[in-house]
Amino acid sequence: MDQWKIETETLSFAYNGREILTNASTRFTENAITALVGPSGSGKSTFLLTLNRLWETLPGGSLSGRVRIRFDGQSHDIYEPGYPLDRLRRRVGMVFQMPNPLPMSIFKNVAFPLLLAGERDRAVLAARVEEALRRVHLWREVKERLNDSALALSGGQQQRLCIARALVPEPEVLLLDEPTSSLDQRAARAVEELLVNLKERCTLLVVSHYLDQVRRIADRVVELSDGAIREGR
Amino acid sequence: MNGWRERAAQGIFALAALVSALLTGSIFGFLLFFGLPLLTGGRLTAILTQPWAPYQGAYGIAPMLAGTMAISLLAMSIALPLAMGCAMLISLSGPGPTGRLLRKAVAMMTAVPTVVYGFVGIFLLVPVVRQLFDHGSGMCVLAAGLMLALMVAPTMILFFCDAFARVPRDYGLAVLALGGTETEKLLYVTLPCAWRGVLTGTILALGRAIGDTLIALMIAGNAVRTPTSLLDSARTLTAHIALVFAADTESLEFKSIFACGLLLYLFTAVMVVGIRAAGRRRPGR
Amino acid sequence: MRRRMGKLLPLFAWGSTLTLLAAIMTIAGYLLVEGMPALDRTLIFGDTPPLAALLLRRPVFGGLLPAIFGTIALVVLAVAWAIPLGVASGIYLAEYATTTAKRLLDPAFDILAGLPSIVVGLFGFAVTVFLNRHFSAALHPCLLVSSLALAFLVLPYIIRTTQTALEELPPAIRMTGPALGASRLQNIRMVLLPQALPGIASGVILAIGRCAEDTAVIMLTGAVAAAGVPRSLLSQYEALPFYIYYISAQYTDAKELATGYGAALILLAICLALFGLAFWIRKGLDRRALAHF
After folding, report:
1. Domain C39-292: which topology?
2. What is the pLDDT of residues C36-48, one digit of tens each?
3. Which of C179, C190, C195 is facing A54, going by the closest CB pair?
4. Which of A105, B174, B188, B250 has the fewest CB atoms lying closer than 10 Å?
């Protein structure tokens, strides 16, 4: 059996008075793509936020239970009091449904996680930005205009930019909330291909509505409904 | 990593908020500290009821209270219907250019300095009032009330419009779908649903009317007498502060302006609490 | 009955709107007609050569320059005091404060926002009297006191616009920074504040307008009719709104009164321009927010 990367134990989560998970205990396999499906409104996207504690930045959530993630072979209880959130979120990256580039240049967007970590060396930044943009096959398209606003890119380019940005801190887990739903088919395919390639270095959790997409990329499918997480077909 | 920096920043932000909040308290404290000699020993009732006669040792601010009430209530009774009508027009004309333009014009009007209203009041309105009624100098409750109405009306209109806009669109559509007109929609749905916002806007405008200094100071005449007619000259609490503050700081006369300040402060506090209470209770279902 | 209502209501609405517009047009028109002829070089500089006056080489008598300089100094100082305190408080309310803390702080800021400006002026004056009596007899109402009192007056505006500008940011933006490992402070500094800047700026501009037009605070805290261009924080000063008030009561001849009209027109223009600027910034903000979705 494959090694697990993320484990939830009796996890209950409510958001704005709506019960999303009740006592859910489940595991997610390492270096695999797990697709998260379920009826719309079942809280798939909000569930993702419990794995990097991002729900805490929004009002109206309440949680009990445990989430463990295996970093460097060691199991970390991420809800342990005082657990360093910035480190957690660098290790658990996230890509949102709507591309969310910051209103800065393309370069600064991708370099942003490094700037946060205090990196100021231009050469290092440039090298890492190029590497990340190459990995999402965006480098050729934007290398001439790295200083243009990221908001000027097309939707598909913006989403790949956001994936590149999420990859910069070298996350071990990548959470993706319907990453292709705002893209046209061609751009969506490019992103899918990318995700499959990322499997070697990351554990991926993808919320998806598209069954054919799930079939194409997922190693495992789980369904979230009525507050429980079940193994899909 | 930068834990102390995070904590220091949070501490600084919290401290700033605390200082700002304490400022509100310290304003009250200072007014009380200076006004206290006049409020103790049974003099409180005297100051609220007596007339103003410094040479006889009477420092009552009752006439100023009456002046404030007369002028601001007159202003409100003129401004309320005007503002209501104008807000209705904006609401009736919908999202078209008329409504948008009107809204912009009204918003612009809120930027007119009150000293400008006072200035134009002296040289344009007061002579007209004087000639029309042939009574005194023309500086009177009526003149100040009219100008004040003009000053507070734009704020009220904007507030009413916002209250109308917050009424869910479906309600209005339901009326229109039943064959009702825009006017009926406004009358039977929008207004009843928005009354709380209308009330809040009115209270806020009353607060502005009571708190304004320059218009009354410049065109109400400042006579220390309880006005008995619209054409009487009157002095407001605010104008009284502006007129007397330069007096000898040890005198009771000087202390009386702190009683005015306290009264204005308390009025503001009651208004704020009232509005918060009105806002908290959501309209039933 | 209902029929008649349907006809009367629009009539009433149009009637009150036209009344209001006519009144405000009369005021603006009157100021324009009376004030325009006064608008010339001598209105601002008196008989002093403009360049010498601007460089403060020669004092200006009978011109508005000292009042204009006074108002500018006053506004700049007041806003300089109010921005750090107000923005920091706004950040605390939007990003850190618990519900309980907000419940305790909110009424204080609401009361501060609702206080008549003469009460704030009286507070400034009382504090000055107090300090003068107990600490330093050198302290009198002056530019410093006025600017501090004005800062208190506009503090709640700046707090509230900062708070709303931050709170109105969509969750997607709010989560972007933390999702990449930004700490709370980093997120505020590098993502949220830059995004909220136009909103905060429009609030600051409205605050500037408020400082420029307020008369009640400054008449109690150091504005006088004749002081020349302000030389020090501890000196008395002239200001446009106070000049308008003073002239309206104390003018001696038609020429002096004409400068009053000119000053009123200039002040009105400044306030409308500032308001327009704030409006324009906020409109750009709305458009950008729409483009984002």
Report:
1. MetI-like fold (1.10.3720)
2. 888 888 788 877 7
3. C179
4. B250
